[in-house]
Design goal:
Layout: E1 3-7, H1 11-23, E2 27-31, H2 34-40, E3 48-52, H3 60-68, E4 75-79, H4 84-92, E5 97-100, H5 105-119, E6 129-131, E7 134-137, E8 142-145, E9 148-150, H6 154-164, E10 171-172, H7 173-181, H8 189-205, E11 211-215, E12 219-223
Parallel strand pairs: 1-2, 1-3, 3-4, 4-5
Antiparallel strand pairs: 6-7, 7-8, 8-9, 10-12, 11-12
């Protein structure tokens, strides 16, 4: 079963999350600070992170940046700070979901399971895609450009694969939000824009011939 690491400075919140996750047969490890989790990363890493934003010392957003430098496992933010700025910034930094406190533990479980389910390629979406010098392997969740692998996060891979499955076809930001993030992110187009920027930078650095193009005033497409 999947391993989930939880960091929250409130012991009762850590224990609550741990109990509900363990009831669903997840293996859980808890931390009270970002520094504790970062030290643990020196020896191993989990299948998912659940991060509080308000932490002593380094906060959850800074921790997310640190994680994203090396790891692409999904990240869920859980925080009492529910303003749009925090929510969108968390997504821009590479977070996969965001729950504001107080929250229902059952809702958290649903979101955890939804993310893991989305990481499994659907039967109809397991076709290997080749566009010029770029090959996408959905079963391995891997992108290769001229024999060089591109390091993408989960959301970055899902978005690129979705666009690559319909080359030269433009999709609106709203459609991409619905397909990749789900309806909970309605209207938060900045999450799409930032994810596209990161993908574009990464594939250009590897010399990709397909171009992740902006359709001004509408959305994006993979031009091949």
């Amino acid at each position: 079963m999947a391993v989930i690491w939880v960091v929250d400075d409130e012991e009762n919140i850590r224990d609550l999350i741990r109990r509900y996750l363990e009831k669903e047969d997840f293996t859980v490890r808890t931390f009270s600070s970002a520094e504790e989790l970062e030290n643990a990363l020196l020896n191993s890493n989990p299948d998912m992170f659940i991060l509080d934003i308000m932490l002593p010392g380094s906060d959850g957003l800074a921790l997310c940046r640190t994680i994203r430098e090396k790891y692409d496992q999904p990240i869920i933010f859980v925080s009492a700070r529910g303003e749009e700025f925090d929510r969108v910034l968390g997504l821009e930094l590479g977070g996969d979901d965001y729950l504001a406190k107080p929250f229902s533990p059952r809702e958290l479980i649903v979101r955890v399971k939804t993310i893991f389910r989305r990481l499994q390629p659907a039967e109809q979406s397991t076709k290997e895609l080749t566009h010029k010098n770029m090959v996408i392997y959905p079963d391995k969740r891997k992108v290769v450009i001229d024999s060089k692998e591109v390091n993408l996060t989960g959301k970055e891979f899902e978005l690129l694969y979705f666009l690559a499955a319909s080359p030269n076809c433009p999709f609106s930001r709203e459609k991409l939000l619905e397909e990749i993030w789900g309806f909970d992110y309605e209207g938060e187009n900045r999450a799409v824009d930032d994810t596209v920027k990161r993908i574009r930078k990464k594939i250009r650095e590897k010399g990709a011939l397909p171009e992740l193009s902006t359709v001004w005033g509408y959305g994006y497409k993979l031009y091949v």
